[in-house]
Amino acid sequence: MALNLLPALHEAGLTGRSGSAFSTAVKLGAALQNRAELIVNACDGEIGAAKDAYVIRHHLAEVRDGAALTGLKRVTYAAHAGSETEGRLRAAGVAVLPVPARYVASEASALVSLHHGGLARPMTKRARLVQGGRTPEGKKTLPVLVLNAETLLRIAQIEAFGPGWFRSFGTPEDPGPRLVALNGAVQAPGVYETETGPSLSQILSLAGGPLPGARALNIGGLGGTWIAASRIPALHYTTASMATAGAAPGPGVMHLLGPSHCPVATVADMLNYAAGESAGQCGPCMFGLPAAAAGFAELAAGTGGPGAHAALRQRLGLLTGRGACHFPDGVAAFTASALEVFSTHLQAHAAGYCPGQEERDQS
Fold first, then answer.
1. How far separated are the first and last CA of the chain, in Å rounded?
2. Which of 185, 186, 232, 281 is the most buried (most CB within 10 A)?
3. Interaxial angle between packed helices 355-362 and 343-350, expressed in degrees from 0 to 180 and rounded to the nearest 10
């Protein structure tokens, strides 16, 4: 069944729904060649993520069908320990890997490490996970394929309805239906079924549209990008259009920042969180992220001096491409976009006042 499925997945153009946007057919083909196990990632690891919980709550039967269709013999479901998702999976009688509720713990190689008795920390990937590797403690790992819960749902739908049905959604470059979690200053936060192609305004309208006074849109959480609210009407939910704003569809997480929240304080809080989520094994995470958080805090407090902005940008340049996982890369891009989108707000903070606080005091 799995070998018959591969041509359909190729024809459908399914890519991973966790944000990597890599061909699912190619990954599954490599996994079958290496007789890999399958881990279904249902952790909702990104800030604001809720798709995995939604899929397990409403589509667990289809996810299990998709997992069976892969032809991989051993299937384990990863979920944050103590979460509703873990409870639902255990009630369904499937094998569950309880994952610590830490940011990097649900990264694919961290799940593989945990699955093999190691710590939930990213592995240095000298080889692809479907070829096997070694945990941070040096223990050899078997070949494993990690797929997001929504990806398994889409595999089941492609088998049931065909590649043509799948391609009837989205764009030729980014085909298929997809889920998006809409949070923050929208009328009805939640998880919604959509596709690539519509404008960002249309995507936000799924949640009833923005509340008055929205400042900016964060797409992708800590691994994503900030977009000024003024740019939203001109952008579409496609890879090409969002790239013009330095963004991407990513894992399907959007947070609209409302007028009651200071953007500088929001970014500072998120960077402080990022600094505390290091796996403790790579310099960019252990030292670079706290340094970036401290540098942004200086800008927020107006205590960094005239060279603080340039110093922070230099630190961000040292984070990219040097970690065992892409956590530092994502935070660097997230911070760089905040420096650009909130530059006026940062200048006001440096001068000793917060425009947002003045607006709130007047309201």
1. 62
2. 185
3. 90
User: CB of 55 within 8 A of CB of 63?
Assistant: yes
Q: Contact 52/46 with Cβ under 8 angstroms?
A: no
Q: Which residue has the tokens 């609209």?
A: 256
Q: What is the pLDDT of residue 127?
A: 66
Helix (H) or strand (E) holding 273: helix 263-275
Report the 10 Å Cβ neighbour count for 178.
21
| Residue corresponding to tokens 């996970």 | 129
Q: How many other C-beta atoms are found inside a 10 Å radius of the C-beta of residue 354?
A: 18
CB 129 within 8 A of CB 20: no
Question: Contact at 8 Å (CB) between 256 and 184?
Answer: yes
- How do residues 94-103 score in pLDDT, each as one tens digit? 999 999 999 9
Q: How many Å apart are CA 222 and CA 329, to the nearest integer?
A: 10
Burial 298-314 (b: 16+ CB within 10 A, else e): bbbebebeeebbeebee
Kindly state the greatest CA–CA separation across the chain: 65
Q: Report pLDDT digits (tens) over 248-262.
A: 998 999 999 999 889
Paired tokens of 138: 């040096």
* pLDDT digit string, tens, across residues 59-79: 999 999 999 999 998 999 999
Rounded to 10 degrees, the C-alpha dihedral 205/203/222/342 comes to -70
DSSP state of 347: H
